[in-house]
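Per your request, structure below.
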């Protein structure tokens, strides 16, 4: 049996997707992002943005552009998704209908600003209808948690099988408090210390991990100083349990990849422990004088998945473990 079948019997097998989600809205930036993905490989996802990328009155043409890029041969790895308008926007269904024309090559759809669980299920129902018409029975869905109601329903939303990722929309969330949260809480350091913001981040991460889904951390608006991006990504991972993060500029991608990838020493340790466990038919073992069993095996298996998703070089002996 494959390690994942042994280790996750009766448990949620965690979703494994790239640790960086790069957003691009303008055509020039979309094409640059796709070219960079071709150069680096499928180490990061690209989300082509209809919500903020389309100018007013140009929504249909923009959605057609997004669909054409997803369907093109430039989408070599099948790791390009799209963010549509929110459910209550007049262009939502039009976005979905057009982009699902490329459903076969579409990695996922991002649904922004749902008010609650009911809106999420309604949006998914519409998406499924159009994806089904184009031969895609179960399209992965990412949900942007930006409202009070969606935050309250985060656990129920994460429990939906088709949902693989919850992202935190910090700017809309802070704005929804009408000045009760200061504007500096949209960025560091206050985004990691303000109680209402940290509560939201923790609730989203906890909901995701309870159901084996991916929590995706909000954007860093600082573009020129990549050390800020790296610091935000590290804190999001180490302090809040986030395993994925947005990028809004190509220079942010590599710092995010580095910060959210496990250390090489962790990977080596994981391979050694899992190889011994596999040889012991996944029974308890001692490694360097410490006891390990299936609980720790699941942890180390997740380390290997993160390393693989971020493009880290892995020992040949890890092949049967992945």
């Amino acid at each position: 049996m494959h390690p994942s079948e042994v280790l996750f019997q009766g448990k949620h097998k965690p979703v494994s997707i790239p640790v960086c989600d790069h957003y691009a809205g303008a055509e020039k930036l979309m094409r640059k992002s796709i070219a960079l993905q071709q150069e680096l490989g499928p180490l990061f996802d690209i989300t082509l943005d209809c919500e903020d990328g389309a100018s007013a009155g140009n929504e249909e043409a923009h959605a057609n552009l997004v669909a054409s890029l997803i369907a093109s041969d430039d989408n070599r790895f099948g790791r390009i998704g799209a963010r549509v308008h929110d459910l209550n926007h007049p262009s939502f269904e039009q976005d979905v209908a057009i982009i699902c024309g490329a459903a076969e090559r579409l990695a996922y759809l991002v649904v922004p600003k749902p008010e609650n669980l009911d809106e999420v299920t309604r949006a998914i129902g519409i998406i499924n209808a159009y994806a089904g018409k184009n031969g895609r029975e179960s399209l992965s869905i990412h949900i942007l948690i930006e409202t009070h109601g969606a935050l309250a329903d985060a656990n129920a939303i994460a429990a939906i099988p088709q949902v693989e990722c919850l992202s935190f929309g910090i700017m809309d969330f802070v704005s929804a408090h009408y000045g009760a949260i200061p504007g500096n809480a949209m960025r560091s350091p206050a985004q990691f210390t303000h109680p209402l913001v940290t509560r939201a981040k923790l609730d989203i991460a906890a909901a995701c991990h309870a159901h084996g889904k991916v929590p995706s951390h909000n954007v860093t608006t600082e573009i020129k100083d990549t050390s800020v991006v790296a610091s935000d990504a590290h804190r999001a991972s180490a302090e809040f349990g986030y395993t994925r993060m947005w990028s809004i500029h190509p220079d942010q991608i590599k710092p995010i990849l580095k910060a959210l990838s496990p250390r090489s020493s962790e990977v080596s340790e994981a391979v050694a422990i899992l190889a011994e466990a596999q040889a012991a038919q996944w029974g308890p073992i001692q490694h360097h004088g410490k006891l390990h069993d299936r609980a720790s095996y699941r942890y180390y298996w997740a380390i290997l998945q993160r390393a693989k998703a971020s493009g880290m070089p892995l020992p040949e002996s890890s092949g049967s473990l992945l």
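The chain has a mean pLDDT of 95.

Regards,
D.
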